[in-house]
Amino acid sequence: MRSEILTGAIVLALVFPHCVMVTDGIEVDVVYEAAAMPQAVLTDMGYRVKLDRALISLGRVELLECDNFVLQVWRLFVPGRAKAHEESTPTSLGVPMIIDLMESSGAVLFAGTLRPPPGRYCGIRVVSAPADADAIASTPERADMLESVLVLEGVVEHSETGLELPLRVRIAEVIEGDMPFDEPLVFDGPRSVTVSVRINHIQWFDGIDFAVSAGAAVHQKLVENMKSSLAAERL
Amino acid sequence: MGVKLWLLITALALPLWSASEAAACGTCSVGDPTLTIVGFEQPSAKRVRTSATARHRNDRIGEENVDQLLLSEQRLELAGAYSPTDRWTLSLMMPLVHRYVTAVNLAESDIWAPGDLEFRVRAVVYRDRSFAPRHLIGLIGGLEFPTSSIERDTEGVPLPLEFQAGTGSWDPIVGASYTMFSDPWSLYLSSVAIFPTQGTADTKAGTSFRQTALGQFQPWTFLAFQLGAEFRIDQPGFIAGVRDPNTGGHITYGTFGIVALPHDKILLHITVAVPLIQRLDGAHEEGLAITGGLVYEI
Predict the structure, then answer these.
(1) CB-CB contact of B120 with B91 (8 Å)
(2) Closest residue of B to A192, CA-based?
(3) How far apart are the C-alpha atoms of A187 and A128, rounded to whole Å?
(4) How far apart are the CA of B185 and the nearest CA of chain A, in angstroms?
(5) How much is the mean pLDDT over chain A?
(6) A-chain residues near B65 (CB < 8 A)
(7) What phi and psi, each to the nearest 5 degrees, are found at residue B19?
(8) Given an 8 Å threshold on Cβ–Cβ distance, is A20 in contact with B48?
(9) I need a labelling partner for B6 at 20 to 30 A (CA). Which of A50, A81, B89, B113 fits?
């Protein structure tokens, strides 16, 4: 009798059903959408830019809380210190990704899923930083992206004067771009949304007079244009 | 008459010590969960006991609004113990674990799983006299079996140790205890170390040392009050060779318990453990723990 009770208790414990139920919480899928690349980009200053190579390295994407939005924007004026493979948190993805703007023209690229706590989120920040060897889409042919955030190669020609110049841009500085949402994302319970970050590189060459500008001036204007070309949209 | 009364009270009081443990989980327990069934009195030859013990505890792991996990755990421990002689006691304890984990993004995991089966041996190596000893020194040995299931994420990667119902490893247990009786007071001290090995999911809990100090006052034969302290110090845990930052450190609980004997074969106990000093590594905060149960002598 004693042994039966003991045996029964142990057997009952050993056959205790194993059960796991998981309920998804708040999830924000982030995708990148690169604008469709035409044969040549016509700038507002009359230049035609024909790109042979256009690569960008994105290091981090981060949701911005409404309450901290001003503070987050202020950080734009502080020198960036981003690096490849930063630690991911519920509000930021630290997985670096190299995007070939020529190959990805018009494509939707999945960056990852954020799992933020409840709150109000007014925007999203994208940080462009040099990649590392583990970055998504990193290949030996793209080894220069380990030291660059943006690589552009091609030819620039003026549509009227016929002036033709080679275009070779390599930008290594960390670039942060903040994009406000049209309406805040408000999370007070589990739900899933998708946010698209659009990269419209068609505008990147506007305002640059390649005939008189070169080097740092072109880089600076490109960075400004790059930041302003980013847009976030909730799908 | 006086001696008989003393013996009777002592005999009744001895099992009451058994409710001294704080609530526990597979990876962050305090105290000795098998004491409920084994007790720390002098074993009675040929005695068989069974017990059911319920434990509840809360845990906060991680930084608030960043990566915090809220853990609520309930365990039902079914156990049996047998004393072949008046010096040896063998016990088996099987926990059934329910864990409810809430992530910072309100994702929830509801886990029901068996924990790690635990086998222990307690040997009385010193007693000042055979009958109604006033001083007992015992040695404790044991082994935890990897019977718990290993919880994994959707990609098959083992979840942090906090999500697991047990360590999933073969864990040797070594310890010693001392008991002193001075009716109606009693004192119990024990030190137990657990040495987890590599778990079945490439997890490794850190070596854990637990110290229990407990005093008991028994004004009546059917009721006793306990006051004590439970100390635990852990080495960090590792998953796939990477340190889990929120493991390791030490914690001290204050415990208060009540033990009742409604029948000569039944013992009821309830203990509340309050964390007093927490020096746990990383962002890790343990909460109130409550233990209640029943011991039945067959």
Answers:
(1) yes
(2) B105
(3) 27
(4) 33
(5) 81
(6) 117
(7) -90, 30
(8) no
(9) B89
CA distance B81 to B33: 13
pLDDT of residue A104: 77
Q: Which residues contact B67 (CB under 8 A, 6 or more apart)?
A: A89, A90, B104
Identity of the residue in A14, A17, A89 whose CB atom sits nearest the CB atom of B112: A17
CA A206, A212, A213, A215 torsion-angle sign: positive
Domain residue ranges in chain B = 2-297
User: CB distance from B74 to chain A under 8 Å?
Assistant: no
**What value does the mean pLDDT take over residues A159-171?**
84
Nearest-by-CA chain A residue for B46 = A2
Q: Is B72 on the interface with A (CB under 8 A)?
A: no
Q: What DSSP element (H or E) covers B292?
A: strand B284-297
Choose the mutation target among A1, A6, A88 for the interface with B, i.e. most B CBs under 10 Å: A6
- Cα separation, B29 vs B115, whole angstroms: 12
User: The pTM is what?
Assistant: 0.73
Residues 6+ apart with CB under 8 A from A125: A60, A61, A62, A63, A64, A72, A176, A177, A178, A179
3-state secondary structure of A140: helix
Q: How much is the pLDDT for A10?
A: 57
Encoded tokens for A217: 């001036």
| Interface residue B96 vs chain A (CB under 8 A) | yes
Q: Residues of A numbered 173-202 whose beta carbons fall under 8 angstroms of chain B's beta carbons: which are they?
A: 189-190
A154 three-state secondary structure: strand
Structure tokens at B125: 């190596």
Can you give the pLDDT of all 298 residues of chain B as single tens digits?
A: 344 433 333 333 333 333 333 223 344 555 555 556 666 677 888 889 999 999 999 999 888 878 888 999 999 999 999 999 989 999 999 999 998 989 999 999 888 888 889 999 999 999 998 888 899 999 999 999 988 877 776 667 777 666 778 878 899 999 999 999 998 999 999 999 999 998 876 778 889 999 999 999 999 989 999 999 999 999 998 877 888 888 899 999 999 999 998 998 899 999 999 999 999 998 889 999 999 999 998 8
**Alpha-carbon gap, residue B55 to B36, rounded angstroms:** 12
Identify which of B149, B125, B128, B120 has the alpha carbon closest to the alpha carbon of residue B137.
B125
Q: Is the pLDDT of residue A189 over 70?
A: yes
The verdict on a CB contact (< 8 Å) between B109 and A25 is: no
Nearest chain B Cα distance for residue A16, angstroms: 6
- Flag whether residue A212 sits within 8 Å of chain B, measured between CB atoms: no
Q: Chain A contact for B298, CB < 8 A?
A: yes
Flag if B48 and A89 touch (Cβ within 8 Å): no
CATH for B2-297, options being 3.40.50.720, 2.40.160.40, 1.10.357.20, 3.30.450.40: 2.40.160.40
Instruction: Render the burial of B58-89: b for 16+ CB within 10 Å, e for the rest.
Output: bbbbbeeeebbbbbebbbbbbbbbbbeebeeb
Residue A76 has pLDDT above 90, yes or no: no
